[in-house]
């Protein structure tokens, strides 16, 4: 029962009808308002998880500038100059006499770059090598040309125009995809920049129509700049720093750290103190592989280069030909001999010789090749230590050699780089001097194909016979590398300690 003093608010019936009417008439607007509020709250909640650069909304007030203007705006407060559009007259269809309709075609942009510069190096006081990629169709269906120009920093009246035709070399033998490798040799009729005053090498790359006879486009490439006093001409004649230098092809994929570990320890021992290894990372040097390379980098045996940027350009096999040619010209005056092979291949010289006796005997040749011995990548010899086989190195347990006859096996090669103008993967065809393939019995390499690219135990079949035939391929036991493993392990321990003892597959 309610007391008289208690006040109960009963809404007026008319007021309630008016309120319901207003709400009913504005239902659509209220739904829109509530939806907007819900979206705004959700957006604010999500913004808490965005990086700070994204949370900055000041740039929402205008469209982003083109990429070419971004760099300009970061270096100056003045507005960028207007971009002048290329004046190309649009061709229209034409009706000819007799009602024949002549159709026309209008091209815009380019299918591939005219030239992609990777590097440029001096080859002497009067010569340079410019290394890069170029459109493969351009070189297949047209005849692009290159003009080299040296521009001194202090231009005098008699040195205003020093030019020479560039000689192009295509070292990848047609293996290129969208892009092919181009080495432009710029050899001037007399020394340039040898006075130490500095200067700039320009390369004018002309498409010669590029398949379209109506256009002859030329791009000017700033290939190399020498600051005053930076050139040391003694490098061209001084004794090299290294006896042996390894130029590695691009490493990619999920590589096995243990296989890389074995390869590094073995070849540092094989080549000796006056050797160096240039490793190119195209995505294969993940943290665990880096742990393997780091001790040798700290010891001064390895230089690691990050080349993942080349993956933007579709060339043959991670642009392998591009990378080895850059390595050739970058280090050509730093070593007597330069080696080209892969990290699943192990060089070997019989016990009566050494790598020095081999190279000394080949000194009259600019290039010599190395024969291959193909090893099984999954057959392992089951001996009296079968329970410990999984703890052994790959070179200890993969001992079955392919002896199939009548097939052509790949070779790898060695060069004296000062006499080489461009190089390949299995040999070079652009050299000054002689080559030889007669190295049987002197030097060979054991190829464990596929073992470097899989992070698993390589043994898939354990056998205890010295001769067997698997799917038509005859194998014999070859313990050459197995017998060398013990010395390699002790060498690694002596050189870098036990830091890699727990390396995994």
Tell me, what's the shape?
Answer: globular
Q: First CA to last CA: what distance?
A: 86 Å
The largest sheet is: 9 strands, mixed
Low-confidence residue ranges: 1-24, 52-80
Q: Please compute the radius of gyration using only Cα atoms.
A: 34 Å
Overall strand count: 26
Please estimate the helix content.
10-25%
Structural class: alpha+beta
Q: Give the overall pLDDT as a whole number.
A: 83
List the total number of helices.
11
- Percent of residues in beta strands? 25-35%
Which SSEs are present, and which pair or pack?
Elements: H1 13-25, H2 27-47, H3 52-55, H4 67-75, E1 94-95, E2 101-102, E3 116-122, E4 127-135, H5 136-141, E5 145-152, E6 162-165, E7 167-169, E8 179-187, E9 199-206, E10 218-226, E11 242-251, H6 257-271, E12 275-281, H7 287-298, E13 302-306, H8 320-331, E14 335-340, E15 345-348, H9 355-361, E16 367-374, E17 379-381, H10 394-397, E18 400-402, E19 412-415, E20 420-422, E21 430-431, E22 435-436, E23 444-447, E24 461-463, E25 467-470, E26 473-477, H11 480-496
Helix pairs in contact: 6-7, 6-11
Keywords: Glycosyltransferase, Membrane, Transferase, Transmembrane, Transmembrane helix
Enzyme class: transferase
Subcellular location: Membrane
Q: Could you characterize what this model shows?
A:
The structure is a single chain. This protein is of the alpha+beta class. The protein has eleven helices and 26 strands. Strands 11, 12, 13, 14, 15, 16, 19, 22 and 23 form a nine-stranded mixed beta sheet that branches. A four-stranded antiparallel beta sheet has the order 3-4-8-7. Strands 6-5-9-10 form a four-stranded antiparallel beta sheet, with no helix packed on it. A hairpin with a 2-residue loop joins strand 25 and strand 26. It is globular, with a radius of gyration of 34 Å. The N and C termini lie far apart (about 85 Å). Mean pLDDT is about 85; it is low at about 1-25 and about 50-80.
């Amino acid at each position: 029962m309610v007391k008289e003093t208690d006040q109960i608010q009963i809404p007026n019936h008319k007021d309630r009808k008016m309120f319901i009417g207003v709400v009913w008439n504005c239902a659509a607007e209220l739904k829109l308002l509530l939806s907007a509020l819900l979206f705004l709250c959700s957006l604010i909640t999500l913004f808490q998880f965005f990086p700070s650069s994204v949370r900055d909304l000041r740039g929402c007030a205008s469209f982003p500038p083109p990429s070419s203007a971004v760099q300009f705006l970061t270096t100056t407060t003045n507005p960028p100059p207007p971009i002048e559009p290329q004046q190309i007259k649009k061709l229209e269809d034409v009706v000819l006499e007799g009602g024949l309709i002549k159709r026309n075609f209008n091209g815009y942009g380019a299918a591939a770059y005219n030239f992609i510069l990777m590097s440029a190096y001096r080859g002497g006081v009067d010569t340079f090598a410019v290394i890069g990629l170029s459109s493969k169709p351009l070189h297949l269906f047209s005849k692009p040309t290159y003009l080299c120009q040296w521009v001194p920093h202090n231009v005098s009246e008699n040195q205003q125009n020093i030019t020479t035709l560039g000689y192009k070399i295509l070292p990848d033998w047609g293996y290129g995809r969208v892009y092919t490798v181009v080495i432009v040799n710029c050899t001037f009729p007399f020394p340039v920049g040898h006075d130490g005053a500095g200067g700039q090498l320009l390369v004018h790359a002309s498409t010669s129509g590029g398949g379209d006879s109506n256009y002859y486009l030329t791009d000017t490439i700033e290939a190399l700049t020498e600051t005053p006093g930076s050139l040391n001409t003694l490098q061209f004649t001084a004794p090299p720093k290294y006896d042996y230098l390894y130029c590695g092809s691009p490493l990619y994929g999920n590589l096995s750290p243990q296989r890389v570990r074995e390869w590094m320890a073995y070849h540092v021992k094989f080549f000796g103190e006056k050797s160096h290894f240039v490793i190119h990372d195209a995505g294969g040097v993940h943290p665990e592989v880096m742990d393997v390379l780091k001790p040798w980098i700290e010891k001064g045996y390895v230089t690691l280069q990050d080349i993942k940027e080349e993956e933007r350009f579709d060339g043959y096999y991670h642009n392998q030909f591009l990378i080895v040619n850059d390595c050739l010209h970058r280090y050509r005056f730093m070593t007597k001999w330069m080696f080209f092979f892969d990290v699943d291949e192990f060089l070997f010289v019989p016990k009566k010789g050494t790598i020095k006796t081999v190279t000394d005997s080949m000194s009259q040749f600019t290039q010599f090749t190395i024969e291959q011995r193909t090893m099984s990548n999954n057959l392992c010899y089951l001996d009296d230590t079968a329970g410990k086989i999984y703890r052994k190195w790959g070179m200890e347990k993969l001992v079955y050699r392919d002896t199939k006859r009548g097939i052509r096996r790949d070779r790898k090669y060695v060069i004296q780089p000062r006499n080489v103008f461009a190089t390949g993967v299995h040999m070079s065809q652009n050299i000054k001097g002689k080559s030889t393939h007669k190295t049987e019995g002197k030097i060979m390499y054991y190829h464990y194909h596929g073992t470097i690219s899989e992070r698993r135990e390589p043994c898939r079949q354990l056998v205890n016979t010295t001769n067997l035939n698997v799917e038509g391929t005859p194998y014999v036991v070859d313990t050459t590398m197995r017998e060398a493993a013990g010395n390699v392990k002790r060498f690694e321990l002596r050189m870098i300690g036990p830091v890699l003892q727990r390396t995994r597959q």
